[in-house]
Amino acid sequence: MSTQVLKLGIPAGSLKDATGELFRQAGYRITFSSRSYYPSIDDADIECLLVRAQEMGRYVSQGVLDAGITGHDWIVETGAEVTEICELVYSKVSRRPTRWVLCVPTDSEVQSAKDLQGKRIATEVVNMTEKYLAGFGVTAQVEFSWGATEVKPPLLADAIVEVTETGNSLRANNLRIVDEVLRSTPRLIANNAAMADAWKRKKLDNLALMLQSCLAAEGQVGLIMNAPKADLDAVLKILPALKDPTITALSNADWVAINTIVEESVVREIVPQLKGAGASGIVEYSINKIIE
């Protein structure tokens, strides 16, 4: 048994459950307790700590944690000196990136960032917003918002920079998106010391491989079918394969077995076509991981 331990930060809050589910799919069982910030994991080489995503980069860069999962946005906001090992495109709502957007009331005269000179902007990402405005040569009063940012315009702020996935909350508060400030996805990060440690680097590489393999498999299914050799070309033309399908000889020399991976969304369209082209014994099966 290894005497080394990888100290891993798990994002608390909205990403906690989604992160736990991703780890479960990757073969790791993380158990959360409402009374503890130390989730248990069925890997004796890993110790987990629940940390707010906003603070993850700081604790990783300081060496309190070897590695952690946090959004690219918080790495940019805090200026944390960390290595982004891999991108993990998942979130609390969807598998789409989150967006930090510049918003104003729907009836505002502001049409671009250049119109915000001297204006008041409320946001949770002060540093990111100031850097964004500087790119337009704009100086504004950027104030940290402790929450409920969407309700501050127009009385408490002329504009806001807020995170959104669907835009529903912004529309509900009569806000209009002027520009996208930053697009962000979760990242597995580590500090320089962990990356320089051969054991920890290997552990992190393996973890990244398994997590990414689960995300790559989302929306994909496997298809197995039999087809006469005479109809093979017609069947293959229908298949939108991940790579070239696997063709296997059968005991009947006139037939072959075909195994491939396709997007689940196209199965209902191509299965009737495959049957019409001569395929039979068509079986769909789940894909848990895809490792390139």
**Spatial order of the strands in the main sheet?**
4-1-5-12-6
What is the C-alpha radius of gyration, as a whole number of Å? 25 Å
Structural class of the secondary structure composition? alpha/beta
- Mean pLDDT comes to 93
CATH domain fold name of the largest domain? D-Maltodextrin-Binding Protein, domain 2
Oligomer: single chain
Count up the helices: 9
> Order of helices and strands, N to C?
EHEEEHEHEEEHEEHEEHHEHEEHE
Largest sheet: 5 strands, mixed
Q: Low-confidence parts lasting 5 or more residues at pLDDT below 50?
A: none
CATH architecture of the largest domain: 3-Layer(aba) Sandwich
Question: For the record, what CATH class of the largest domain applies?
Answer: Alpha Beta
Strand content: 25-35%
Give the proportion of residues in helices. Answer: 25-40%
Number of strands: 16
Count of individual domains: 3
Cα(first) to Cα(last) distance is 29 Å
CATH homologous superfamily identity of the largest domain: Periplasmic binding protein-like II
Shape: globular
Mind explaining what this structure looks like?
The protein has 9 helices and 16 strands. The chain folds into 3 domains: 6-94 and 186-217, D-Maltodextrin-Binding Protein, domain 2 (3-Layer(aba) Sandwich); 98-184, 3-Layer(aba) Sandwich (D-Maltodextrin-Binding Protein, domain 2); 220-286, 2-Layer Sandwich (Alpha-Beta Plaits), CATH 3.30.70. It is 29% helix and 32% strand. The strands form 4 sheets. Strands 4-1-5-12-6 form a 5-stranded mixed sheet, sandwiched between helices. A 5-stranded mixed sheet has the order 9-8-10-7-11. With 292 residues, the chain is an alpha/beta fold.
